[in-house]
Amino acid sequence: xNIRLYNAQILTMEKNRPVFRGEVWxxxxxxxxxxxxGAECPNVDNITVETxxxxxxxxxENLLMPGFKDxxxxxxxxxxxSYADDVPLQQWLNTKVFPLEARLSREDIxxxxxxxxxxxxxxxxxxxxxxxxxPDAAAEACIDMGMRCVLTxxxxxxxxxxxxxxxxxxxxxxxxxLIRYRLGFHSEYTCSRELLEGLAKLAGKYHxxxxxxxxxxxxxxxxxxxxxxxxxxxxLDSLGMFAYGGGGYHCVHMSEQDMDIFDRRGMYVVTNPASxxxxxxxxxxxxxYTERGIPVAVGTDGPASNNCxxxxxxxxLVSGLSKVREKDAASLDAAEVLHMATVNGAGAMxxxxxxxxxxxRQADLILIDLHQPNMQPVHNIPKxxxxxxxxxxxxxxxxxxxxxxxxxxxxxxxxxxxIYERCNEIVKRIVYA
Amino acid sequence: xNIRLYNAQILTMEKNRPVFRGEVWxxxxxxxxxxxxGAECPNVDNITVETxxxxxxxxxENLLMPGFKDxxxxxxxxxxxSYADDVPLQQWLNTKVFPLEARLSREDIxxxxxxxxxxxxxxxxxxxxxxxxxPDAAAEACIDMGMRCVLTxxxxxxxxxxxxxxxxxxxxxxxxxLIRYRLGFHSEYTCSRELLEGLAKLAGKYHxxxxxxxxxxxxxxxxxxxxxxxxxxxxLDSLGMFAYGGGGYHCVHMSEQDMDIFDRRGMYVVTNPASxxxxxxxxxxxxxYTERGIPVAVGTDGPASNNCxxxxxxxxLVSGLSKVREKDAASLDAAEVLHMATVNGAGAMxxxxxxxxxxxRQADLILIDLHQPNMQPVHNIPKxxxxxxxxxxxxxxxxxxxxxxxxxxxxxxxxxxxIYERCNEIVKRIVYA
Lengths: 433, 433
Hints:
The structure is a homodimer of 433-residue chains.
Chain A: E1 2-10, E2 20-27, E3 30-36, H1 44-48, E4 55-58, E5 63-66, E6 68-73, H2 89-101, H3 106-122, E7 125-130, H4 135-145, E8 148-152, H5 162-172, E9 179-187, H6 193-206, E10 210-214, H7 218-228, H8 232-238, E11 246-250, H9 256-265, E12 268-271, H10 273-278, H11 286-291, E13 296-298, H12 311-326, H13 334-349, E14 365-368, H14 381-388, E15 394-399, E16 402-406, E17 409-410, H15 416-430
Parallel strand pairs in A: 1-4, 1-5, 6-7, 7-8, 8-9, 9-10, 10-11, 11-12, 12-13
Antiparallel strand pairs in A: 1-2, 2-3, 5-14, 14-15, 15-16, 16-17
Protein name (chains A, B): 5-methylthioadenosine/S-adenosylhomocysteine deaminase
GO molecular function, one term (chains A, B): S-adenosylhomocysteine deaminase activity
InterPro entries (chains A, B): Amidohydro-rel, Metal-dep_hydrolase_composite, Metal_Hydrolase, MTA/SAH_deaminase
């Protein structure tokens, strides 16, 4: 499809480039060109003379920008949303989550992932960094709907294996332009030393970064110290796990030494503020990370712990929690947080072609409604987005050049009601049987 | 207008009453009846035989519930949204807010309030507890749009007076069914002792509760201790200010003795979590208040400090921040927070007729879209609302029996674009001149 998005305000998220009026042209899955109109956009006829557009969309002076990157999630946990809340993390995992997850089939995960994808689209999320059981099922759901997904293995003592991880890694980095696969494991506390050593070796073989849940709770850190006499980051690094970089999900309880490792290895912190509040895990020292130059990306975590998949809420929290933690209302301003939720997310996930709006980049973009009252007046668009934005501002979500969501309607191959129905059947069987 | 809302799920917010299927009938500004259909709703013809409906609205199995009560706001501060962020409270007030506010005319406040009202409607807020300059202008804007508003005086050394407060009190408690007026003042630190004594006397004359900003920052509390040797709550109570109860906005830094006063006087805490994060004021000990039986209501604070007027974000924060503050993931569950945002809000504002859905109560209600992906599956509706809900779930907002907002469209006497235009003219003149 050749799509012309005209009469727009444009925030490319390129460094130091302010919002301007213009057009974005999409051909196939890529951005073919970006037109900066200055004060007045040129006549339509002069532009369209060379190209046959399949669709010309009047953006009505709304904002085009790169889609949000949800840099940590477990999509299929939709089946537990609002089922198991208000309990601490370890109890939540051991008594609520793990026993029910054990009953999920591969097909269940396929359908439950689809429910999450619908919600990502309503929140302007154009790619997800997905860790869950059955990566194959998640990948297939994303392909079938048109969602961009970077898988990472949730390898642990009970599910998957080094061999399976390698097979998935090889398959999903060449199967579909929508899917990539990065090496990962669930966490230090769910993996034996042997398993971790095996993964570190695999990372060495392919020169790949590795991602994992890290320092999410104080208990996790204490447990690792007891087992190995080191914090999780130090222990894992001592195995050579991060020889080619990688990242940690959560990173709420990090020591100076842990941060030094992240700094030295060029690793990403993926912060998940809503989940950390809801499970009472703590408030991550995000300002410290950024002061050290450690890149921070933002994730929702899964819908069982958050419980929504809403990057607007996460962005407000990254800034607001940092301000209250540092006792400094100037901490982590809106522009910095918006960068985390877009450019840094792409960096963490290895999506170098989906970071900003520019000619040649992947056409993963969103249209933000500036005509809603929460976006008025327009003193400062990044501040409006981070401090005041909501899902209700998402007019359109485009991934890989396809409009998957527009004005409340989905174009994902089947109706939302069909997806709900299938998920509710699963819930009935798994949770209430 | 006689309006029949049928094919709904209904959450009345009456104590211990679960969600049921049914209908809500509205006549004039009141709820005329609520029908619990049990498993199957009766035939339409049998119901409508006695009444001529002006409108019959199919709720499509979505949720009817009481509207949210925004129990603390400064509506007209819309003009500063995203203008003066990322600075601490006192600096923010003194260098950014006060100098620009001094330039606002009564008419400016009228128009700027209207912008806020549009946003309240998109967030399912059906009444506001409003403190700002020119209460008359705010009241008129609300009347003209159909919004329910409880005014409280922002009395301080620089604006308003005891006499003006008394005049407003008498006028606005008898002028319009949409408006009520409670006694109040800006804060201890902006009022002389004489002024405060005068207001306490006025409260005694009319047996009225009194509302104020209280213990918002640690500096405020320290300042009062220096001036009077007491915390603000203790000092104000010593003047007889709370002889007939009242409430405190924010209440982030409260002593045991302060809480004892609230307890003894039957006073309300109105918590404003997003504003307290954004201005780095702190995290209020809300769980302590509820354990002591002090009723807590929820407010957004004004759009210059928050910056959005979104009760969904506030509700998540009340619960999430309490969990992380108390290091207890079970702290303040969703049902309790939903009660705060509806029933307790009505209590704090003195709106005894707008608390729950019941025959005879004011028809202030909202329709929540349960067919959005963030509301699926439906394990638990209150948890879905508090942990996962967003503005995007508001299908309809009705105040005093009038539908003011439905499916993204406003019915408030003029178009949203006209309101934006007038506000942008004011911004241009006040902020950028």
